[in-house]
Description:
Layout: H1 6-20, E1 29-34, H2 37-42, H3 44-58, E2 63-68, E3 80-83, E4 90-92, H4 97-109, E5 118-121
Parallel strand pairs: 1-2
Antiparallel strand pairs: 1-3, 3-4, 4-5
Amino acid sequence: MTRLTIAELQTIRDKNRATFTLRKGECKARVTVHMGTCGIAAGARSVMTSLMNEIALSGREDIIVKTSGCGGLCAREPITVIELPDQPPVIYGDLNEEKIKEIFREHVIRGNPAGEYALALGSETIF
């Protein structure tokens, strides 16, 4: 197996960068629920179910929901990241069914981060 050069990796990154960003008009929000082993053990499945129910009840079709593996903060699982256009992502932790409902209504629907549940604001950049 041949190794990729830095230039080849940068080309791949640049080519796919648009798929990693939330663009205006594409959707209202992107919600990522971390579903690694630690997250599932901490209750991520019930958080995901509750989130999906809230989205269905809201009738919204402009919200993207994704899953991810471990977020690296196992002690704070279940973790969810919410991204809205033109705003930095917000990482929420120590979630349960009721907290995700409140976060959904306040942050995704109204656009106001739910500060009492937030762990971090922003994200790392690799370029």
